[in-house]
Amino acid sequence: MSSKYVNEATSSGWSVLFAAWVLVTTATLGSLFFSEVMDVPVCVLCWYQRIAMYPLVLILAIGLLPYDPKVLRYAAAMAGTGWLLALYHVLLVAGLIPKNAQPCVQGIPCSETHISLLGFLNIPTLSLLTFTLIGVLLFYTHRMEPS
Amino acid sequence: MNRKTIFISVAGILILAFVMASLIYKNYQSGLQGASGGRNQSVVERQGAPIKGPADAKVTIVEFFDPACGTCADFYPLVKKLIDQYPGKVRVMMRYAPLHKGSDEVVKMLEAAHLQGKFFPALELLFNNQQRWVVNHVSQPTRAQGILNGMALNHNELTADLNGPVVTQAIQQDIKDGQALNISATPEFFVNGQPLPSFGYQQLSQLVKQAVDEAY
């Protein structure tokens, strides 16, 4: 019976980490849907955020099967980097950072890069929300670790 | 259920959802195009826009272009080839989509040249010397002006027309229609109001062939 209690603690850690994996996978497929299916142009900053997001699909999967809480260290570093980039991008779009610092896709003017979806939710905001949520989930996984 | 099973099933569901959403979206898009095709002629074409080819041609290619766009310059000889390929049957109408920084000033020069009947020579000159006046994808209007200065034009008239109401109105109309047609990249082609199914020269020549077969 006692081994079951220990298992339960790691098991809930596994579930939260699994939720984080579902989130990054959904975000990855979602961003691919925007760029590859809807043909939304991808700006340079979006690519940097993708670099922080896409590998998490594999890194978290490896940490889930079999469950290895050490994965949190690697995942947190990536999620943190992505979060900072997303924050910078959101501030840029909101005009809080001067427009002339805005990167631009070859042949696509900067004004065209930020397509706003669902009215107020643009892609950089979605990215910032996702990275924030990943951070929260990783933190809870960490909290559920017995040690 | 063990973890591996949960993981693999959820991964499967996510990938399936992605594929389904892609198919549904593509389907929806082609449905939209079919519904709007032909009906948006008044937005696609503008009276008085520069035209190459016979006036009574039954097939009209409308090209939204930016003089600073490299792909537009690459496509220009190909579009001319299409006009020659079907003599008397195909014409091309050029409309402005100044998406590059600085291009708004350059299209004014082209429209002012058009008022003197010199649109196509001016356009060819700018396309052929693009690397001299487009730097890192940004138009340099003063350099473009310098290149056009070498042309046989009434330059006083050109300068006077640049910011005149005729030029401004034509360009405003093109930008407005371009937005209505959701043009975010150049060149963008319409053949008798029909957009390309996907971008490429092959697709353009295919659509032109279809339209010629239908009209003649």
Mean pLDDT of chain B: 88
The strand line-up of the biggest sheet of chain B is: 1-3-2-6-7
Number of strands of chain A: 2
List the chains of the largest interface with their residue counts. Answer: A-B, 22 and 23 residues
CATH topology of the largest domain in chain B: Glutaredoxin
Let me know the CATH homologous superfamily of the largest domain in chain B: Glutaredoxin
Cα gyration radius of chain B (Å): 21 Å
Strand content of chain B: 5-15%
Instruction: Report the helical percentage of chain B.
Output: 55-70%
Low-confidence stretches of chain B: none
Give the second-level CATH assignment, the architecture of chain A. Up-down Bundle
Write down the CATH class of chain A: Mainly Alpha
How many beta-strand segments of chain B?
7
Structural class of chain A: mainly alpha
Tell me about this structure.
The complex is a heterodimer of chains A (147) and B (216). Chain A has 147 residues and is mostly helical. Chain A is 69% helix and 3% strand. Chain A contains 4 helices and 2 strands, in the order αααββα. Chain A has helices spanning 2-37, 44-64, 71-93, 123-143; strands at 116-117, 121-122. The longest helix of chain A is centred in the N-terminal third of the chain and has 36 residues, at 2-37. The relative contact order of chain A is 0.18. By secondary structure, chain B is of the alpha+beta class. Chain B has helices at residues 3-36, 41-44, 70-85, 103-115, 119-128, 130-133, 141-148, 155-162, 165-180, 201-215, and strands spanning 51-52, 59-65, 90-96, 134-135, 138-139, 188-191, 194-195. Chain B is globular and about 80 Å long. Chain B starts with a helix and ends with a helix. The A-B interface holds A 14, 18, 21-22, 25-26, 29, 32-33, 37-38, 41, 61, 64-65, 67, 104, 106-109, 112 and B 3-4, 6-7, 10-11, 14-15, 17-18, 21-22, 25-26, 69-71, 99-101, 137, 184-185.
